[in-house]
Design brief:
Blueprint: H1 4-11, H2 16-26, H3 29-41, H4 45-59, H5 63-71, H6 74-93, H7 99-119, H8 121-130, H9 135-140
Helix pairs in contact: 1-6, 2-6, 2-7, 2-8, 3-7, 5-8, 6-7, 7-8
Length: 141
């Protein structure tokens, strides 16, 4: 993966939750799980368990912090997650990851949330709210 700033600029202008909802709505649950499995399978053996722990770490954020995170600008959150990925793996495992590996891990996080949106109505509702697609907005548009 080349320049992360250029990619962040492409993501910019929409909420991070919108990226997740796009995957959840445009891909079937089977497609999301297949893509998630392919990304996980492509990880080097020493990264597999740390990435599971990283996903758990991201999922463990308190609800108000998660809401704020997912409603933030997608480009900004992409760059933040790149820093979290690298920092978590270095500080907890002494592992440095390449840019491609970091990007794959970012996609694992996104697809993990997309799968959760497809499986759990409350997760989908929370993500829709973070994306600005709440009940009141639907009434007004």
């Amino acid at each position: 993966m080349g320049d992360f700033d250029a990619l962040a600029n492409q993501f910019s202008g929409r909420r991070f939750a919108e990226l997740i909802l796009e995957h959840a709505s445009k891909q079937s649950p089977r497609e999301v799980i297949t893509a998630l499995s392919a990304l996980q399978s492509g990880l080097s053996p020493e990264l597999k368990e740390p990435v599971v722990e990283l996903v758990d770490f991201v999922n463990a954020m308190p609800q108000p912090q998660l809401r704020k995170f997912f409603s933030g600008d997608c480009g900004d959150k992409f760059l933040e997650l790149m820093d979290v990925i690298k920092g978590f793996l270095i500080s907890n495992y002494g592992l440095q990851v390449s840019r491609n590996e970091a990007f794959d891990i970012f996609n694992i996080i996104v697809l993990n949330y997309a799968a959760a949106c497809q499986s759990f109505p409350q997760t989908n509702a929370a993500m829709r709210k973070a994306a600005g697609h709440g009940f009141l907005r639907r009434l007004l548009t």
